[in-house]
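Support request from a user on the community tier.

User writes: "When I paste my C-alpha cells into the form, the page sometimes reloads and wipes my input. The last time it worked, I copied everything first. Here is what I submitted, just in case something in the input itself triggers the reload:"
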C-alpha cells in the first residue's frame, strides 16, 4: 500500500474566499462568495509521457503510471524532464502499489525499496498495513506502530534506514486501537522533529505529539477532542516546524485554518473557509480544498496561486521548493484522475489522462 494517509483521506464540504485582511495582526484570508463554476472550460494540454529512459540527472521527480502499464514514469516538478524508470518498474501487474520518497527515488513496492535502475536496495522492517512516512530527505522512514497488534497495546515511534532494523524513538505515548489511524505527519533529521497524530476512524484528529527525533523527548502534546468535535484536520510541513489546524465551527458551520508554529503553538496566520491538507516544501504555500475545487494559496498574503474544479485528491510537495503535484478526483468514488504540477505562479503542467500517482492526503 502506498505510504501516505490514503486511509485517512478527508473529503470536506466548505466555502472559501481569498481576500487578505490588512487589519489582522497575522495574515488572514477572508471568506467571499464562491465564483460560478465553468464546467465547459477545456482542460489545458497534457504532458506527453516519454517512453525513453529518464536521464541520469539529479533532482526531484513525481512518479506516475498510465492505465494498463506495469512500469513507472517520472517527471520533474517543473515538467522539464520525463521518462521511464529503468525501462519498467518491478510491479508484476498493472495497478500495483508503490510509495515514492520525496525525490521520487528510492521508492517502495510493498516492503522492498528500489533505486532508479530498478536495483533492489533492501527492505523496510514494517508490513504494508502500518502507516509509514519518508523523512524529508528520503534517507529513511518513520512509523508509529503498536508493540503488538492488539487493542490497548502501547504505541511506538520508530525510524529505519532501508535494509536495516527499526530503531525506537519514543514509546508509551498512547495506546493502540484498531478503529484509529496513527500517521506520522513529519519526520525530519535537520529540524530534529517527528510528529505523530491519532485520527479517530479517519474523521478528525484526536491528539498530536511533537517529538525530538534524536532523543524521543516530547516537545508538545495537543488534545484536539474538544476543539475539533464538529470536524477538523491537521497537517504539518515536511520539516515538522509548522502546523495547519483546520476546524469547523459547529455542524454545517464554516471552516477556518490556522497556521501555527509547531513547538509553541504561536499563531502565524489564518485562512477563513478553507481546509489545509499540506504545505509546499518551502512552507510558503498551502494546498487544500474548498466547496467545489482544490486550491494552492500563499497563506501569508492570501493570494490564490492556482485552483481547479473537482474533488481534492492529494498532493506531493517538491522538497524544500515551491512546487507541488496536486490531484483532482481519486477519492470518494470519483471517476476523475487528474494531476497538476503547480508553482507559486500557477499551473506548470497537467499529467497524462487518468494516471496513478502515490499522492499524500
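"...and here is what came back when it finally went through:"
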Amino acid at each position: 500500500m502506498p505510504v501516505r494517509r490514503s486511509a485517512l483521506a478527508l473529503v470536506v464540504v466548505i466555502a472559501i474566499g481569498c481576500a487578505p485582511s490588512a487589519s489582522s495582526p497575522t495574515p488572514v484570508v477572508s471568506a467571499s462568495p464562491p465564483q460560478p463554476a465553468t464546467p465547459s472550460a477545456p482542460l489545458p494540454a497534457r504532458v506527453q509521457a516519454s517512453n525513453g529512459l529518464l536521464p541520469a540527472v539529479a533532482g526531484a521527480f513525481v512518479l506516475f503510471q498510465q492505465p494498463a502499464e506495469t512500469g513507472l514514469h517520472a517527471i520533474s516538478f517543473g515538467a522539464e524532464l520525463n521518462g521511464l524508470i529503468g525501462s519498467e518498474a518491478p510491479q508484476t501487474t498493472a495497478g500495483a502499489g508503490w510509495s515514492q520518497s520525496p525525490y521520487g527515488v528510492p521508492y517502495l513496492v510493498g516492503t522492498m525499496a528500489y533505486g532508479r535502475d530498478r536495483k533492489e536496495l533492501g527492505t523496510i522492517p514494517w508490513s504494508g498495513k502500518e502507516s509509514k512516512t519518508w523523512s524529508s530527505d528520503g534517507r529513511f522512514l518513520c512509523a508509529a506502530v503498536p508493540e503488538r497488534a492488539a487493542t490497548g497495546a502501547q504505541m511506538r515511534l520508530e525510524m529505519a534506514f532501508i535494509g536495516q532494523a527499526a530503531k525506537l524513538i519514543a514509546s508509551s505515548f498512547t495506546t493502540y486501537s484498531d478503529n484509529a489511524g496513527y500517521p506520522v505527519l513529519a519526520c525530519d533529521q535537520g529540524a530534529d522533529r517527528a510528529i505523530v497524530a491519532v485520527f479517530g476512524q479517519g474523521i478528525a484528529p484526536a491528539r498530536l505529539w511533537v517529538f525530538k527525533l534524536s532523543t524521543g523527548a516530547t516537545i508538545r502534546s495537543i488534545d484536539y477532542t474538544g476543539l475539533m468535535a464538529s470536524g477538523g484536520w491537521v497537517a504539518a510541513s515536511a520539516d515538522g516546524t509548522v502546523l495547519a489546524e483546520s476546524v469547523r465551527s459547529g455542524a454545517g458551520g464554516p471552516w477556518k485554518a490556522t497556521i501555527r508554529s509547531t513547538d509553541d503553538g504561536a499563531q502565524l496566520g489564518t485562512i477563513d473557509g478553507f481546509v489545509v491538507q499540506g504545505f509546499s516544501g518551502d512552507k510558503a504555500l498551502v494546498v487544500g480544498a474548498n466547496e467545489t475545487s482544490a486550491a494552492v494559496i500563499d497563506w501569508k498574503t492570501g493570494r490564490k496561486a492556482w485552483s481547479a474544479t473537482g474533488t481534492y485528491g492529494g498532493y506531493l510537495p517538491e522538497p524544500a521548493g515551491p512546487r507541488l503535484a496536486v490531484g483532482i478526483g481519486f477519492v470518494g468514488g470519483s471517476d476523475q484522475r487528474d494531476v497538476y504540477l503547480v508553482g507559486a505562479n500557477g499551473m506548470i503542467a497537467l499529467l497524462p489522462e487518468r494516471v496513478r500517482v502515490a499522492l499524500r492526503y
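Agent notes: The reload is a front-end session timeout and is unrelated to the input. The longest strand covers residues 167-175. The radius of gyration is 20 Å. Escalated to web team.
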